[in-house]
UniProtKB/TrEMBL annotation:
<keyword id="KW-0597">Phosphoprotein</keyword>
<dbReference type="InterPro" id="IPR004358">
    <property type="entry name" value="Sig_transdc_His_kin-like_C"/>
</dbReference>
<dbReference type="InterPro" id="IPR036097">
    <property type="entry name" value="HisK_dim/P_sf"/>
</dbReference>
<dbReference type="Pfam" id="PF08447">
    <property type="entry name" value="PAS_3"/>
</dbReference>
<dbReference type="GO" id="GO:0000155">
    <property type="term" value="F:phosphorelay sensor kinase activity"/>
</dbReference>
<dbReference type="InterPro" id="IPR011006">
    <property type="entry name" value="CheY-like_superfamily"/>
</dbReference>
<feature type="modified residue" description="4-aspartylphosphate">
    <location>
        <position position="816"/>
    </location>
</feature>
<dbReference type="InterPro" id="IPR003661">
    <property type="entry name" value="HisK_dim/P_dom"/>
</dbReference>
<dbReference type="InterPro" id="IPR036890">
    <property type="entry name" value="HATPase_C_sf"/>
</dbReference>
<dbReference type="InterPro" id="IPR001789">
    <property type="entry name" value="Sig_transdc_resp-reg_receiver"/>
</dbReference>
<dbReference type="InterPro" id="IPR005467">
    <property type="entry name" value="His_kinase_dom"/>
</dbReference>
<dbReference type="InterPro" id="IPR035965">
    <property type="entry name" value="PAS-like_dom_sf"/>
</dbReference>
<dbReference type="InterPro" id="IPR001610">
    <property type="entry name" value="PAC"/>
</dbReference>
<feature type="domain" description="PAC">
    <location>
        <begin position="331"/>
        <end position="383"/>
    </location>
</feature>
<feature type="domain" description="PAC">
    <location>
        <begin position="203"/>
        <end position="256"/>
    </location>
</feature>
<dbReference type="InterPro" id="IPR052162">
    <property type="entry name" value="Sensor_kinase/Photoreceptor"/>
</dbReference>
<dbReference type="InterPro" id="IPR000700">
    <property type="entry name" value="PAS-assoc_C"/>
</dbReference>
Amino acid sequence: MLSKYDCFKLIEMSPIGMALCGTDRVPVYINNEFTRILGYSPEELKNMCCTELTPAEYVSQEIQLFEQLATDKTLGPYDKEYIKKDGSRINVRIKGISVELDGEQYIWSSVVEIEDLKNAEKATRISEERFALAMEGANDGLWDWDLKTDEVYYSPRWKEILGYQEDELEPTFSTGIDFVHPDDRATVIDKVEQYISGTTDSYNMEFRMRHKLGHWVDILSKATLVADKVSNKPIRLVGTHQDITEKKQAEKCLYEANERHRDLAESMSDWIWEVNADGVYTYCSAKVSSILGYQQDEIIGKRPFDFMLPDEAGRVGTIFSEIVQAQRPFRNLENWNLTKEGQLICLLTSGVPIIGGDGELLGYRGVDADITDQKKAEEELRKQSQAIKYGGEGVMITGTDGSIEYINPAFTEITGYLPDEILGKNPRILKSSAQDPSYYKALWDTISSGSVWRGTLIDKRKDGSFYPAMMTVSPIKDLNEKTTHYVSTHRDMTEHQQLEEQARQSQKLESIGTLVGGIAHDFNNMLAAIEGSLYLARTQLDDHVYVENILNDINKLTSRSADMVKQLLTYARKGKVSMRPLILNALMEDAFKLANKMIPENIEHICDTCNEHLIINADATQIQQVLMNLAANALHAVAGVENPKITCGTSYFKANENFMQKHSHSQSGEFARISVRDNGCGIKKDHMDKITEPFFTTKGVGEGTGLGLSMVYGVVKMHNGTLEVESEKGKGTVFHIYIPLSKSLEMRESETSEANVPIAGNKETILLVDDENDLLITSAQVLESLNYRVLQATNGEEALQIFEDEQDSISLVFTDIIMPKISGFDLMEQIWLKSKNTPALFASGYDAMGHEIPKEKEQQAIIISKPYSPLEVSFHIRDLLN
């Protein structure tokens, strides 16, 4: 049996902490190791109970263990913590037994410091927990292949990836390899073998494995070898399987998206860019080469300002600095750049900031659009807009419904209407009713069909005055060729017409000098014939038949004289253009008679009119002037030519396709052709393009104004006609004038009637007014011979008094136009105030004022020229009374 002394020796020799305690758990003897562990001296420990060294949470457990020791005789081993002298805790492992020494019961216990072990266990536990968390977080499946036994551990997650439960798969390598896609299986086996054999340094590959439901799962497999510590030979292969199906699909989608974005970037007309926080290009699309001329690698690393002129770089830099400072997006920043070839182009730049996760500005990305053409177009549009706004022609834009949407200042100047007075209204506000409704219908039909209308209108200003307007109305179409608006230009032709009239008068004066000699010659001949006839009549007064024949001859001579005066006055008159249906042949014959007066008898001159009944819508005076001008040119051309000849003629002309293409402005296919031909000197080729230019002449100084053919060209154009010239130097010239045939064949009966018997009246009362007493008496006798009752007045005042007294009985007023004090027109204005339906027949020897019948009185008033025949007067009176 051991004694206490023996026990003390054993305790002292032990390398581990040992203590001998009484049943009261107070140490009786402790060794040095025990005191080292706790930091107390032996003396201090001998006075302390074990529970005093124990943390509170272990006390109850320790008391219970000591109580068990009384019956079980052994204690532990168990782990606990002791409180060291410095107050810190230390992990220890305790084991004890109950012993009897010298007849007394003791507890002999060993105390081993396990702090390092606990730390290692804790580290291991933490590592395992972290690994478990990592595996769980990574969502990877774990496999561990024992290369000796061929057993494989497949983690629950590994099986879950393939759709299997924990107990559904055999733990063998073949189990796993059988799930691999047939196309991938050989590669997987080969890679594994290479890694195990050391041929490759790593194992990391992607392949497909079959899911329990039959579809294929994309797997990323990684593994590492575990070698034997002694032999260094591989004994295990441990790895993970990661389900990358969604990742692969995402990568595919991302690839497709990138491809789409790349294709989009390459196909865009704009170029895409990115700059870093320093404003340096880090990316640009290939489109930059077609915009700036630089390749992508020539752009990256540079700043946008490197491609700008200094002033522009400074301007844009200031703007961009403010944008960057605010870290805000920007849109439509215009900036001018230099291309690689040194040309300036305008870019429209937009961009958005790139913000990092911490709110830091990483840079900007955006697009640049080349708007150089747009800027040029805008500048061109600005110029056009300025031209439209400040040009001399009035411009009006209307919607398809006719409402006015825009007018320029010139329009206001011409019409008197301010924008707020006319916008939203219809252009009919300008109608003067001077045109027939069919004229406006033709205009509307033309523009409604998508064509351009050109013509002249008599429009009405805001103040009610009329003015001639040359207009062009064009449709405005959208990209689908649908008409959205109409634009019309208005030119006030008042001054132009006055200048034209002055030019025409100048031309007439050129011709009149030539005409005077011929007219005087003819007048003298006719006066001599009249004087001789009167002498013969006086000698044979008893022979009534002879006298009647003489008087008929005198009547013919006076008619010829009157026609000559009418032609000359018509040719020389100033006045407004009067377009009306005319029989061309009759007009040409009259004009030719007048032209004959300036053509010497030594020149053969022929008027060759056709048999067709050609009717044109024309102004007789202007057509007559055209013939006079061409005849004057022909007369000049044949001077000095042997057997000179001038031919004037008319013919019907049906236009062919070539003619219509050559003269696209001509809308009619049927024309009356007027030709003036001479066998004179001809026109030089280099003069052919200039002959219709104003003031161009081949005549000597003082021989001509150079306005003749220019006037002809202007008149022909005004009649919607065409002028053609054929000439060869030394062989003569022919001028062809094509005037569209009139669609209106209605002619006044009084103009076409071949009747030569005066129409008698029915005792109606006519108020006859003329300040020439002899003509008044003669005219009254003629009217009375036609069965009319005649009231005579020698002036306007007398006529008004007679009308006041005889108003109810007077059926018609026949008045001279030019009279002292009250003219014929002034007289009728006052009479119409009293009796608005009274017909009026006006007569004038020469009306320098160019009076015209008001439009509202056109059906009840007519103007005739003196001298007039009883036949003509009877027809007009009958027309008015009927």
